[in-house]
Amino acid sequence: MCLAIPARIEEIEHEIAKCRVGEGETFIKASLTLLAEEVAVGDYLIVHAGFALRRLDANEAEETLRILRDIVQLMEPVDPSGLSG
């Protein structure tokens, strides 16, 4: 399964944006060729399969990242020794 994820533009060179995913040190490259709007360093994008699909405002990007973090946390394995039954 593939997810479109929010990413923050760190650099732009020749219609390719280097973007940071989340708060960590994960970077991806995203083609800007499909965007109808102008974007700049610091903007957030929705990126899927290496293409920026649209620009997000910062609040929307942060909320989406929070939801994704919550989903990942829910998927973490549970230690059965801590369960009573």
UniProtKB/TrEMBL annotation:
Record SUPFAM superfamilies: HupF/HypC-like (SSF159127)
Any GO molecular function: iron ion binding
PROSITE patterns from the UniProt entry: HUPF_HYPC
Superkingdom classification of source: Bacteria
One GO process term, biological-process aspect: protein maturation
Pfam family name, one: HupF_HypC
Residue stretches in coiled coil: none
Similarity field: Belongs to the HupF/HypC family.
NCBIfam families linked to this entry: hypC_hupF (TIGR00074)
Protein name in UniProt: Hydrogenase assembly chaperone hypC/hupF
